[in-house]
Amino acid sequence: QEERSRSEHNLLNIQKTHERMQTENKISPYYRTKLRGLYTTAKADAEAECGILRRALDKIAEIKSLLEERRIAVKMSGLYSDADPPRKTMRRGVLMTLLQQSAMTLPLWIGKPGDTPPPLCGAIPASSDYVAKPGDKVAARVKAVDGDEQWILAEVVSYSHAANKLKLPDALMARPRRHTLSRRRIIPLPQWKANPETDPEALFHKEQLVLALYPQTTCFYRALIHAPPQRPQDDYSVLFEDTSYADGYSPPLNVAQRYVVACKENKKK
Prior knowledge:
Blueprint: H1 2-24, H2 29-79, H3 92-104, E1 137-143, E2 149-155, E3 158-160, E4 165-169, E5 178-182, E6 186-188, E7 209-213, E8 219-227, E9 236-240, E10 253-255, E11 260-262
Antiparallel strand pairs: 1-2, 1-6, 2-8, 3-4, 4-5, 7-8, 7-11, 8-9, 9-10
Helix pairs in contact: 1-2
Organism: Polyodon spathula
Domain SGF29 C-terminal: 128-269
Protein name: SGF29 factor
């Protein structure tokens, strides 16, 4: 804030200089030189403020990473081992609030001029050699109790290089059922939100087929993009496949960027 306040005087000078030029209806060598100096200073001020903001964002990311490492260490220490008695059932409202908070706090990718969004930013998939780390949130294709397969929200517990498989429980469920799956049966969720104003290429486009987390559930279903986000804080508007409607799709529903991934299912199914 101090940096921003310091630069306001210079911005005010730029505005006043332009107003004087309009009043006199001419661009004299004096005004040309003065404006060049003022704009050079304004550019330097903006770069300094940008640097401070980036350092602050890096510090926030570092704090979040440390908190996540601690949480995983507690989990891996055996606190939630299979031998432990089941925890008390988490209220559905609490679970949904946690999922919403996770979506809201997903960091926004802010690249420098000329940077391209990295893998796992918005709609950009993970690289082919990416291995999900403990704590990563993923969409996982598992067998349900009735034998059918479904995509669920889950968190990676561990990865076996020898078996090329990941172990993960259902999302944040109170009585997690553990699954061991191959890498091809999981889709890592985005680790950054994409900014529609600067990186629209990192977003799914209208009518693209995706998997989206159905509101108030922990399951992913096939859907079409009805409208991509227009601002960084906006959600996708999606149409879920639903045979109970005449056209085969539900009315538009909002789903956060955090919970929309590319569809890997066979389209014939």
